[in-house]
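Propose amino acids for all 456 sites.
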């Protein structure tokens, strides 16, 4: 019987060994892919420069934008608070257009400039606008009027306005003057972005010839500027150009001059005035002309950013008012500044001891009161010394008058009595008195004389 069980278990083990590879093979057998089939499953490669076709449901959505000063300046590089200006005397603009086009393509200062103002362009009617055009800029030219200026050639003004800073439809010529003393053109601009304190921008380009009269030219500039300020009181006004021997320091005292570098040899002839403080920083540029171009970078901070942020302090104040209990303290005018709350508590304690009739307690409180009073006066003295070290003389003298009890003297009354006042009154009114009656002769002032008449 026993050998039959062993035989059964041996047969079962042999069958298990043969069945295991068959089951493993069945388990391993599945879908098998070839290399070509796997390569066919790969999405097609994208061509460089083409955007892939991504379904809308899979496309990533923008959940906001980056913040920070650098990001804001990067987004607003073509929209500064005040216009970035390049100014200078080019002495013939036509032969320098290639250089300007190259500078605007390669250099960031020229490419991001809002306005480029040039004097002595030497342009005339035979030179078309297409010859003096820069890509991305709108050209406003004011050629010299030979009849009004009294000269056959030379002069002329040109202003290039960036299309990324101001729409060409928002450029308007406000004023144009041409005389033997001054050439002027005023342009009104409404850019895409301006701080709230400015309504628009007015750019005035000026050229004063060396032979022109400085006083006459300054009067013309003043009259044009005053008229524009009356019409546009909230405008940002800049005046730039070649002033030669003239200056607007006394003519327009509210305008500030920002060109600090030399523009020709060691002289500063090309200037820029603006009606706002801390608006620009100037750096000298290059150029083929004998005048150096001047780059004026904006450094103006809008009024909104100049104000201190009060959000945190206001919230702290709000929480304080809602959670912290308030306590009213009465300050009497006869209280000395060194009398503190601890000193007042000792005075009240002394009053209670006196009312209770406890002499021992009264003596101990009196000693403690003297010690505290001495310490309070010493602390107030140190406080005055610290104020004196900080040059706060007004507070020091006020404290000294409080300590010493010094008071200003009142109005000093005049000495004398009623009789002296009557004598003075009679003396000064001796000619204004009414004439005596017929029954009484003229009575002299001195009634003690021997010839004094007596009324009958």
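Proposal:
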């Amino acid at each position: 019987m026993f050998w039959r069980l062993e035989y059964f278990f041996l047969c079962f083990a042999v069958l298990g060994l043969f069945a295991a590879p068959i089951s493993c093979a069945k388990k391993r057998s599945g879908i098998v892919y070839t290399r070509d089939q796997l390569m066919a499953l790969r999405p097609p490669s994208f061509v460089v420069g083409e955007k892939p076709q991504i379904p809308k449901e899979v496309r990533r959505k923008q959940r906001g934008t980056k913040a920070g000063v650098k990001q804001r300046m990067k987004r607003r590089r073509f929209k500064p608070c005040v216009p970035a200006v390049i100014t200078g005397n080019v002495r013939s603009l036509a032969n320098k257009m290639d250089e300007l086009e190259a500078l605007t393509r390669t250099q960031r200062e020229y490419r991001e400039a809002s306005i480029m103002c040039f004097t002595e362009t030497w342009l005339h009617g035979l030179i078309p606008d297409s010859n003096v055009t820069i890509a991305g800029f709108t050209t406003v030219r004011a050629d010299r009027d030979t009849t009004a200026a009294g000269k056959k050639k030379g002069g002329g003004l040109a202003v290039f306005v960036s299309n990324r800073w101001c729409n060409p439809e928002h450029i308007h010529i406000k004023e144009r003057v041409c005389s033997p003393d001054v050439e002027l053109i005023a342009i009104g601009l409404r850019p895409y972005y301006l701080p709230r304190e400015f309504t628009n921008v007015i750019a005035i380009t000026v050229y004063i010839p060396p032979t022109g009269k400085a006083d006459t030219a300054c009067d013309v500039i003043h009259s044009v500027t005053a008229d524009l300020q009356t019409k546009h009181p909230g405008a940002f006004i800049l005046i730039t150009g070649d002033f030669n021997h003239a200056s607007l320091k006394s003519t327009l005292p509210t305008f500030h001059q920002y060109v600090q570098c030399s523009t020709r040899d060691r002289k500063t002839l090309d200037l820029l005035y603006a009606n706002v403080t801390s608006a620009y920083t100037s750096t000298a540029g290059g150029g083929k002309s004998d005048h150096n171009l001047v780059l004026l970078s904006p450094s103006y901070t809008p009024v909104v950013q100049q104000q201190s942020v009060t959000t945190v302090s206001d919230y702290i104040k709000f929480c304080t008012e809602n959670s912290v209990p308030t306590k009213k303290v009465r300050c009497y005018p006869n209280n000395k500044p060194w009398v503190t709350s601890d000193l007042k508590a000792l005075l009240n304690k002394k009053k209670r001891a006196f009312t209770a009739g406890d002499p021992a307690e009264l003596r101990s409180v009196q000693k403690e009161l003297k010690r505290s009073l001495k310490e309070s006066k010493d602390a107030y003295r140190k406080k005055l010394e610290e104020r004196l070290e900080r040059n706060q003389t007004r507070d020091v003298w006020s404290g000294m008058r409080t300590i010493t009890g010094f008071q200003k003297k009142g109005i000093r009354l005049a000495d004398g009595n009623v009789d002296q006042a009557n004598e003075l009154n009679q003396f000064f009114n001796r000619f204004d008195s009414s004439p005596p009656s017929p029954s009484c002769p003229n009575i002299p002032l001195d009634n003690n004389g021997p010839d004094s008449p007596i009324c009958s």
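Residues 81-306 form a domain with the Deoxyribonuclease I; Chain A fold (CATH 3.60.10.10). The mean pLDDT is 82.
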